[in-house]
Known about the structure:
Elements: E1 2-8, H1 12-23, E2 29-32, H2 40-45, E3 51-52, E4 72-73, H3 74-87, E5 91-93, E6 100-104, E7 107-112, E8 115-125, E9 132-133, E10 148-149, E11 161-165, H4 169-179, E12 183-188, H5 198-206, E13 211-215, E14 219-225, E15 228-233, E16 238-241, E17 243-246, E18 250-251, H6 254-260, E19 264-265, E20 268-269, E21 282-284, H7 287-290, H8 295-315, H9 322-329
Parallel strand pairs: 1-2, 1-8, 2-5, 8-21, 10-17, 11-12, 11-17, 12-13
Antiparallel strand pairs: 3-4, 6-7, 7-8, 9-18, 14-15, 15-16, 19-20
Amino acid sequence: MKTFVSIVGAGPAGLAAAVELKANGIKEVVVFEKEGDICSTIRKFYPPQKRVDKVFKGLNLNAQGICDFETETKEAFLERMRKYIKDYNIEIKFNTRVDGVEKINDLYKLKHENSTIAESFIVIVATGVFDNPKKPSYPIPEEVKNKVFFRIPKELPKNEKILVVGGGNSAVETACALSGSCDVFLSYRRKKFFRINEENLKELEKRKNKIRFLLGSDIERLEPAAQQVKVIFKDGSEEIFSKIFYCLGGSTPKDFLKKIGIEFINGKPKIDEFGESNLERIFLIGDIATDRGSIMYAFNTAHKAVKRIVEKYILKEDKIDTDSSINSLS
């Protein structure tokens, strides 16, 4: 298929970009999503009824573009995004993984393995950073892999002894969600939390009698123990758990970006203030570009990128206009 703008990723940033493009009269827009539904990070990693915070790590932003929200539940936020999709008639190709982008003349070919998925004049990459959840440095024994998780399930376990590993907001939220039905331990290698937002600190305070804090603890290794998992800490202590949840964040999918030719500076993708990379007409937006973690920031990066696309590649007299560019693809 041929389209004017291809967006890789149907998370908040990618959907916001599609909304902004449609609002600017750009009709030939297609979103490609490797999963079977939108906002995969929120769907997979957020427990039921978890808050989606507008203010994230103290970053309180006003909407620069169309997409906006106030703090609400996971379910309400997903419904909000689905309404944007319906209202702006956004086309999404689900279960479609893009693992390569190749420039042929004036167009970019989006590829999966050796097949061409689409040809596009402009590409917006909005894949987020949780394509590959971070895993611990020590190996996870094969015998316990079915008891080790990197995301919270839709159906929460009950009456089990659970270890949550991590010191960020996702670890705290996971521990809080599980504490209602399980005996929960929270392991963090530092002696106090540094990156927790105010709302989560309040939730921790409410549940301080339901969560056992293992601050300053560092795991040496895991071992199988009957039908459970033995955790050996670096101080020599041991504890047995029925399940372990790792909440260590995610890493930018650098391999994909490097494969398509994106340059890096100090480990971060090289982009200008509008998100345009060293490859002309390839934009990076959301967490993959900034690693901020804020949904409002993702929305705003989408707005800035689309504004730049309109000004640089559509409105300028020495550039193409939307209709002619689309016609040139056919």
